[in-house]
Design goal:
By secondary structure, the chain is α/β, with parallel strands linked by helices. The chain has helices at residues 3-8, 10-20, 62-65, 74-87, 97-109, 122-137, 182-186, 196-205, 227-240, 259-264, 290-293, 330-343, 348-369, 395-399, 403-415, 434-466; strands spanning 41-45, 48-51, 56-59, 115-119, 141-145, 188-191, 210-215, 243-247, 270-274, 284-288, 375-379, 382-386, 418-419, 426-427. InterPro entries: Aminotrans_3, Aminotrans_3_PPA_site, PyrdxlP-dep_Trfase, PyrdxlP-dep_Trfase_major, PyrdxlP-dep_Trfase_small.
Length: 473
């Protein structure tokens, strides 16, 4: 870790050490940690974050992509204040008008959505989607793609972080956490992204067992699919009676108002949404074909938590239970609606993607100028930097890139005031205007210059050492 990082963030180190005494690892989610310690933030505004040592950063994490309008957007904060004042409370615990208003908007925007249920996170959304698919098909196996992340629960914590494999070998079923029951490894099928031939072979083998195929249509939010691959998966799932689930938690509103399904013209049976949908507040949603979604309608039978003698008992009918005290929280939906309405303004996406491409091309030019092999890869307002000569199509290509050098680059960028969790993707917001992009490229050049200088020094030292024979020789 660079000395400048340690020198600039002493209070973050102090607070992290204090947090470790009361919170496992000093963080409330594993994703928030990076070595030697994460930076503790204190305030934010627009495209900028400020840590507890008052260091400013241009933020390209944006709460892992959730803040597409940037920090403290006036339209969003005004909507939340107005909603709170109008309600006279924080939450009703009953139906309210914004639930229907948001549902109608999502149905209008997303080709694969005819009916909607809300959850409190993208994790819960994928969980409900899988339960719906399992109930609909009566099958028990789930097919997921190598390297795709759908939340931190047992059923999908498999092969998210795979090992390198030979190109002609199928992906392994690899548990990614302690405490996973064998049931999930035994009933999970892992597929290779952007490899239609091998995917077709595996799906055919398990065609009578798989309830659903779930995938990030853009892997990790930045690895685009081959259109033929995405269309092929859609056709195969139809042929074998499997439910196709698009996990659009990352791509929803990030690659356009209609997500990846709108961008690529491939319609899933079920869609999971989150992140941008909440305008910076926790939310998830599942939408899909009406007949599948109706499985969770209470009209089919009793609420399992109700003892009402006038309702049919759970044993009398088929019930798919779904509930949550905070589902469809009015303040969160107000923030989400304000966000979507801002994104619907003419020219918003064109400007956002134009800025993203300007940043990407500028970064590539700087890397090339300093002799560092690498390029950007992404879709819409998300991208990543891959330090490799060859183009990437799936997680295996990323694993073969120079990840150690990429981590060094990210640390150098942190020291230059560009905030990105090491090895993570970049997300932009409407607050990242041209002057912010320009400032970012200036800082990026300084970070790359420092990286290239350190790399040259290491190479020179190695050459000097190799010029003298060792004692063993």
């Amino acid at each position: 870790m660079e000395t400048s990082y340690l020198q600039k963030t002493p209070t973050s180190l102090q607070l992290h050490n204090e947090a470790k005494q009361f919170i496992p690892g000093g963080v409330t989610a594993n994703i928030k940690f990076f070595a030697p310690y994460p930076i503790v933030m204190n305030r934010a505004g627009g495209a900028y974050l400020y840590d507890v040592d008052q260091n400013p950063y241009i933020d390209y994490n944006l709460c892992y992509g959730a803040l597409i309008l940037g920090h403290g957007n006036e339209r969003v904060t005004a909507a939340v204040r107005e909603q709170l004042a109008t309600m006279g409370t924080t939450i009703f615990g009953t139906p309210h008008r914004l639930e229907t208003e948001m549902a109608k908007l999502l149905i209008d925007l997303y080709p694969g959505i005819e009916s909607v249920r809300y959850t409190n996170s993208g994790l819960e959304a994928t969980l409900l989607a899988i339960r719906l698919a399992t109930a609909w098909t009566g099958r028990k196996k789930l097919a997921k793609f190598e390297g795709h992340y759908h939340g931190g629960y047992d059923q999908v914590l498999i092969s998210v972080h795979p090992s390198e494999r030979e190109r002609n070998h199928p992906p392994a079923v690899k548990p990614d956490s302690l405490g996973l029951p064998d049931y999930y490894t035994e009933n999970t099928v892992v597929l290779p992204f952007n490899d239609l031939e091998q995917t077709a072979e595996i799906l055919k083998k398990h065609r009578h067992e798989i309830a659903a195929v779930i995938l990030e249509p853009v892997q990790g939010g930045y690895l685009p699919p081959d259109l033929a691959f995405l269309r092929g998966v859609r056709e195969l799932t139809k042929e074998y009676g499997m439910v196709l689930i698009f996990d659009e938690v990352k791509t929803g509103f990030r690659v356009g108002l209609s997500g990846a399904q709108g961008r690529y013209g491939v319609t899933p049976d079920l869609t999971a949404l989150g992140k941008v949908l909440g305008g910076g507040f926790p939310i998830g949603a599942v939408g899909g074909q009406r007949e599948i979604m109706e499985l969770c309608s209470p009209a089919r039978g009793a609420d399992i938590l109700s003892n009402d003698p006038h309702q049919s008992s759970p044993s009398d009918t088929e019930i798919l239970f779904h509930s949550g005290t905070y589902n469809g929280h009015p303040m969160i939906l107000a923030a989400g609606l304000a966000t979507i309405r801002s994104l619907q303004q003419p020219g918003t996406y064109a400007q956002l993607e134009e800025g993203t491409m300007k940043l990407r091309r500028g970064m590539e030019e700087i890397l090339d100028r300093f002799g560092i092999p690498g390029h950007t890869v992404g879709e819409g307002s998300i991208f990543n930097i891959v330090l490799a000569d060859q183009r990437v199509k799936q997680i295996q290509d990323v694993l073969r890139s120079d990840l150690s050098l990429r981590k060094e680059l990210d640390v150098a960028l942190l020291s230059q005031g560009i905030y990105i969790k090491p090895l993570n993707r970049f997300s932009l917001s409407t607050a990242h205007r041209s002057e912010v992009i320009h400032e970012t490229l200036e800082r990026f050049e300084q970070g790359v210059k420092r990286l290239a200088k350190g790399r040259w020094s290491r190479v020179s030292n190695q050459r000097c050492l190799s010029a003298y024979p060792s004692k063993e020789q």
